[in-house]
């Protein structure tokens, strides 16, 4: 089963450390001038794909990103991490606001067919929309088995043995390739791209495509009614001793007097 | 060619931003390289005072090719050798150590020319650095690439933009030249039309350091180009 071709979905999202601000008209969140990076779960997926390549399980790792021109930075990062080449499917900023998992799943499925991929690897979810849909939809569109929330992936006799994180425990399943995998947080710790890797990635091939090249209509299937901030938490206060804390808690009736 | 004062400046810059390293597949050679101990290793590209310092990294294809030369000196003894895209100059230096009668280390990067000179001095051999661009020239019968017995290419298939120029150029060189290629399995190489004219001579495992510098790569091979080109 050596020589698997692996496609990895790499979404450019607002960096996980940035404080999110909702637009005044509540149609979405402010993205202009905000630091973006690769969705952390996608970084984990890229890392795992590159490790599969290093273990000679995979022969080629192809990073794919759908979105505006800045996605090319995300793809350069994926290639600095070890992806062999990348495909940027350009969707202009306005259209991208309404690009949904179904669109991305359709594009990834088409790319998988064109590239004769054996594995489509995505993050379990993107930390911006938290949809947790793309990988599953790819599996449905391609009619491939799926192993989602993967925290460990091994190969055994032409099959992949995948440990999945499920509520309160772990599940181990076997899937035949071709298959869709989605990465959970504990699958691995992604490597950091150093200068030599970043420099060499500058020359790796990046193909530029449009959704229409894959015959995908990116017209929205849902409309966003409103986006709201979580309720504001009441301000806390700083206390100078444990005694004061205990008194406060007693006064509030939170611990028995 | 870089002028005198400028060369002194570049030598200082190279000395300042690199370490002398033997941590690679050819520890017989000591080379000025950017290593994990260097500030630049951790810097971003925008903050680098050196523009695309490809010569400051010892590419996996070049490491394997240089190893092959050091392990098979008889092939190179008394031969004229061209190392195209020489980078740090390692393959040319190894050929000179093996007793080549003339060795040209060709790289279009002007800083590479200075780095090659520094590396050649450190290893106590003579090679001729040059920056002529064979790939971009329009070869006419009168200015064809001079005849070399052996042409070396270490990791020259890293840039898909000029892989086709390499094919074109290879058709223009003297038919008796032996062409040796070192490559770690880069996609533009694996998918290159030349593939059907190549024979694999040897495969090397990369060092741990080289793997860290080249995410996803673990081996590099030596290929011999045979007819038809
Ligand atoms: C890629 C990614 C995936 C994630 N996936 C999940 C997930 O699946 N499920 C999930 O629940 N979360 C997830 N998270 C969220 C992450 O686990 C949170 O960072 C974590 O829950 C800690 O939250 P925190 O912001 O309160 O941070 P922390 O700083 O870690 O704080 C933890 C807690 O410590 C206490 N604390 C910290 N500092 C102080 C202080 N100065 N004084 C008093 N108390 C203090 C507070 O009680 C605080 O809530 C994910 C995050 C990332 C980046
Ligand atoms: C990938 S590096 C390989 C360096 C070295 N051979 C090694 O393996 O370590 C490619 C080198 O080719 C040089 N180069 C690029 N285009 C060139 C050309 N047209 N002619 C000669 N050298 C070129 C670059 O400056 C760079 O140093």
Automatic annotation (TrEMBL), chain A:
Protein's recorded name: Electron transfer flavoprotein subunit beta
Every Electron transfer flavoprotein alpha/beta-subunit N-terminal domain range: 26-218
GO MF, one annotated term: electron transfer activity
Gene Ontology biological process terms from the UniProt entry: amino acid catabolic process; fatty acid beta-oxidation using acyl-CoA dehydrogenase
Function of the molecule: Heterodimeric electron transfer flavoprotein that accepts electrons from several mitochondrial dehydrogenases, including acyl-CoA dehydrogenases, glutaryl-CoA and sarcosine dehydrogenase. It transfers the electrons to the main mitochondrial respiratory chain via ETF-ubiquinone oxidoreductase. Required for normal mitochondrial fatty acid oxidation and normal amino acid metabolism. ETFB binds an AMP molecule that probably has a purely structural role. The electron transfer flavoprotein serves as a specific electron acceptor for several dehydrogenases, including five acyl-CoA dehydrogenases, glutaryl-CoA and sarcosine dehydrogenase. It transfers the electrons to the main mitochondrial respiratory chain via ETF-ubiquinone oxidoreductase (ETF dehydrogenase).
The species this protein was found in: Elysia crispata (lettuce slug)
Record has ATP-binding as a keyword: no
Pfam families: ETF
GO cellular component: mitochondrial matrix
Family named by the database record: Belongs to the ETF beta-subunit/FixA family.
Organismal lineage: Eukaryota, Metazoa, Spiralia, Lophotrochozoa, Mollusca
Keywords: Electron transport, Mitochondrion, Transport
Entry keyword annotation includes Transport: yes
Location in or out of the cell: Mitochondrion matrix
Assembly behavior: Heterodimer of an alpha and a beta subunit. Heterodimer composed of ETFA and ETFB. Identified in a complex that contains ETFA, ETFB and ETFRF1. Interacts with ACADM.
Main localization (coarse): mitochondrion
InterPro entries reported in the protein's UniProt record: ET-Flavoprotein_bsu_CS (IPR000049), ETF_a/b_N (IPR014730), ETF_b (IPR012255), ETF_beta_N (IPR033948), Rossmann-like_a/b/a_fold (IPR014729)
TrEMBL record, chain B:
GO biological process, one term: methylation
Keyword Transmembrane: no
SUPFAM superfamilies registered for this protein in UniProt: S-adenosyl-L-methionine-dependent methyltransferases
Entries under Gene3D superfamilies matching the protein: Vaccinia Virus protein VP39 (3.40.50.150)
GO MF terms held by the record: protein-lysine N-methyltransferase activity
Protein origin, superkingdom: Eukaryota
Pfam families: Methyltransf_16 (PF10294)
GO cellular component: mitochondrial matrix
Keywords: Methyltransferase, Transferase
Annotated family: Belongs to the methyltransferase superfamily. ETFBKMT family.
PANTHER family given in the database record: ELECTRON TRANSFER FLAVOPROTEIN BETA SUBUNIT LYSINE METHYLTRANSFERASE
Name of this protein: ETFB lysine methyltransferase
Annotated organism of origin: Elysia crispata
């Amino acid at each position: 089963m050596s020589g698997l071709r692996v496609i990895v979905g790499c979404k450019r999202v607002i960096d996980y450390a940035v404080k999110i601000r909702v637009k005044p008209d509540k149609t979405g969140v402010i993205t202009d001038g905000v630091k973006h990076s690769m969705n952390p779960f996608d970084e984990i997926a890229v890392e795992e794909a590159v490790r599969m390549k290093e273990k000679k399980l995979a022969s080629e790792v192809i990073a794919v990103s759908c979105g505006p021109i800045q996605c090319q930075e995300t793809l350069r990062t994926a290639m600095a991490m070890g992806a062999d080449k990348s495909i940027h499917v350009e969707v202009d900023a306005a259209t991208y606001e309404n690009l949904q998992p179904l669109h991305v799943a359709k594009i990834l499925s088409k790319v998988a067919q064109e590239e004769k991929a054996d594995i489509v690897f995505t993050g379990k979810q993107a930390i911006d929309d938290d949809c947790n849909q793309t990988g599953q939809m790819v599996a449905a569109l391609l009619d491939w088995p799926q192993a989602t929330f993967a925290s460990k992936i091994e190969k055994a006799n032409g099959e992949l043995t995948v440990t999945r994180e499920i509520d309160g425990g772990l599940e181990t399943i076997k899937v035949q390739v071709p298959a869709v995998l989605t990465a959970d947080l504990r699958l691995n710790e992604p490597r950091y791209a150093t200068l030599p890797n970043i420099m060499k990635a500058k020359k790796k091939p990046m193909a530029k495509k449009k959704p229409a090249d894959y015959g995908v209509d990116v017209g929205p299937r849902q409309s966003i009614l409103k986006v709201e901030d979580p309720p504001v938490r009441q301000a806390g206060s700083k206390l100078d001793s444990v005694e004061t804390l205990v008194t406060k808690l007693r006064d509030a009736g939170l611990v028995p007097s | 060619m870089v002028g005198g004062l400028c060369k002194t400046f570049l030598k200082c810059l190279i000395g300042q931003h690199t370490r002398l390293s033997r941590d690679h597949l050819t520890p017989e050679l000591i080379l000025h390289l950017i290593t994990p101990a260097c500030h630049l290793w951790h810097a971003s590209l925008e903050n680098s005072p050196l523009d695309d310092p490809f010569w400051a990294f010892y590419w996996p294809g070049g490491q394997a090719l240089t190893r092959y030369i050091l392990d098979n000196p008889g092939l190179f003894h008394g031969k004229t050798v061209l190392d195209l895209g020489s980078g740090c100059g390692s393959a040319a230096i190894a050929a000179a150590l093996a007793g080549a009668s003339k060795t040209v280390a060709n790289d279009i990067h002007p800083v590479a020319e200075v780095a090659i000179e520094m590396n050649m001095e450190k290893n106590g051999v003579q090679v001729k650095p040059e920056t002529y661009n064979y790939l971009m020239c329009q070869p006419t019968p009168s200015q064809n690439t001079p005849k070399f017995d052996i042409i070396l290419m270490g990791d020259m298939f890293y840039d898909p933009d000029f892989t086709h120029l390499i094919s074109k150029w290879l058709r223009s060189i003297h038919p008796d030249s032996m062409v040796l290629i070192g490559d770690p399995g880069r996609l533009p190489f694996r998918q290159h039309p030349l593939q059907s004219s190549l024979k694999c001579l040897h495969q090397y495992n990369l060092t741990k350091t080289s793997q860290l510098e080249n995410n996803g790569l673990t081996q590099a091979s030596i290929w011999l180009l045979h007819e038809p080109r």
